[in-house]
Design goal:
about 450 residues, alpha+beta, 2 domains, four-stranded antiparallel sheet, three-stranded mixed sheet, globular
Length: about 450
């Protein structure tokens, strides 16, 4: 066993694989950051709000106000440097730190693909993606033809985890046997040319999409791994994610997944892509191929053990964290205990409203809070059906009103939520003073039980 592991760690592959991946990743991130800025979302999401929802354990992450633009400038600059492979190690490290900090500022912006970008950029910090076709090669006058096989397999493994766990998450009774929440979303897509009036209104299509999505996620890693099915698998990746992009406004995620799938192809394919890119940037081609650049066959890490142990811990976390929901007795989609960071992509449609009552426990007098005085529309929408946000906001209200001179108060929530089209159900126990509850990894007993059952993973 030890011998097999040692032999595997000695295997090598074409350095062009990580070079192409680096360029695609850098370009995607450059466009994504510029797009976010152009939409005005930096102002509305990070600058304007008076209060920001925080992830548990990261309450110390504070909004930088207008200086948030500086974080985006750093990310944009780093994305460009990553693309051309200049000061790569520093650039990818700064990108990871700044991008992750931005995401930690405001919890209401949580999306699976933001999380994916954070952990992928962390992974890339340890990989030699600048050893081929990069400005680092030009300035260091040394280019490597091959890199360790495991550096490429690390990206493949992350892709497999994402797809496979997303597929497992779709094995539930709502998704497979009720076609929910797709049935709820499809009516808003009936105006799409060609398919809106014909296909998307058909009930069987909703079920086909549900089952097809589950089978796609579970099978695509295997289709991409094997040479004989790789082209078919990649065609499926392109079709699936383009179709998803047409139906749902989920930003750059579909395109990121498409270019990421290229990592499964052989080195010859990436060599051809590099040659094509050299033709496109012909004026720089002679600079990148000058005779004084030394061509070395194989790149080796100076201290590979600590990198391998770091990545082993990283992947162990990625494989265990999605299953933490089994530690809680509540319905996952309802209470969302263990829901985030588990690749549960577009599985629920929750709509709710939550009002907060401030009660003077001495006199019994009370008044209701106008959430719009403290939160943006996006924050109100997301907070209304996510229990940890409800609790965090209640404590914020408690601190606010105590600072205004109110004493011996309690904060109570009147909350009703609809899950996947079901009738509204009471979400938060209205008799519980939320100021007496503390955020933790423990089961939130102040969440009312779900009056139904969703079977599956």
């Amino acid at each position: 066993m030890i011998l097999k592991i040692d032999n595997y760690l000695k295997r090598s592959t074409a350095s062009s694989k990580l070079a192409v991946f680096r360029i695609c990743f850098g370009l995607m991130m450059l466009y994504s950051m510029l797009r976010f800025w152009s939409k005005g979302w930096i102002e509305t999401v990070y600058v304007e709000p008076k209060f920001h929802f925080k992830y548990y354990g990261f309450e110390w992450v504070q909004s930088l106000g207008s200086y948030t633009y500086l974080l985006f400038i750093i990310c944009i600059l780093c994305a460009f440097l990553i693309t051309i492979g200049l000061w790569y190690r520093l650039s990818i490290l700064l990108f990871f730190l700044c991008f992750t900090y931005i995401e930690l500022i405001e919890k209401t912006t949580y999306l699976n693909h933001y999380y994916f970008i954070s952990i992928l950029s962390f992974l890339l910090v340890f990989l030699p993606a600048n050893k081929c076709f990069s400005m680092d090669v030009f300035f260091r006058k040394k280019q490597y033809k091959e890199i360790p096989q495991w550096t490429v397999d690390a990206i493949k493994l992350l892709m497999v985890i994402i797809y496979f766990y997303a597929g497992l998450a779709k094995i539930n009774s709502d998704w497979l046997f009720k076609a929910l929440p797709l049935k709820i979303w499809m009516p808003s897509k009936y105006d799409i040319p060609l398919i809106g009036e014909t296909l998307l209104q058909q009930d069987w299509v909703h079920y086909a999409m549900s089952w097809g999505g589950m089978l796609y996620d579970l099978s695509i890693p295997f289709l991409l791994f094997y040479r004989k099915t790789r082209l078919f698998g990649f065609a499926m990746v392109v079709f699936f994610h383009v179709f998803t992009a047409v139906l749902f406004p989920i930003g750059m995620f579909p395109y990121i997944m498409i270019v990421s799938a290229l990592i499964f192809f052989e080195g010859e394919t990436h060599d051809k892509i590099v040659i094509l890119l050299k033709k496109i940037i012909h004026p720089l081609r002679s600079m990148m191929e000058v005779s004084f650049i030394e061509n070395v066959n194989h790149f080796n890490y100076k201290r590979p053990k600590w990198i391998l142990w770091t990545l082993a811990i990283f992947f162990a976390i990625q494989m265990v964290v999605p299953f933490r929901y089994v530690l809680y007795p509540s319905e996952l989609f309802w209470a969302e205990e263990g829901y985030r960071f588990s690749w549960r992509v577009m599985l629920v449609e929750k709509i709710g409203y939550t009002n907060f009552k401030v009660v003077n426990k001495t006199s019994g007098s009370s008044f209701y809070v106008r959430n719009g005085h403290f939160l943006t529309d996006l924050q109100i929408k997301q907070m209304s059906f996510q229990p940890d946000m409800i609790l965090e906001y209640a404590h914020y209200l408690g601190d606010h009103f105590k600072s205004q001179g109110h004493k011996n108060i309690g904060i109570y929530a009147e909350s009703y939520v609809s899950l996947n089209g079901r009738s509204n159900q009471q979400f938060i126990d209205p008799e519980i003073d939320l100021l007496m509850q503390k955020e933790s990894f423990k089961h939130k007993q102040w969440i009312k039980p779900f009056k139904d059952e969703i079977k599956g993973f």
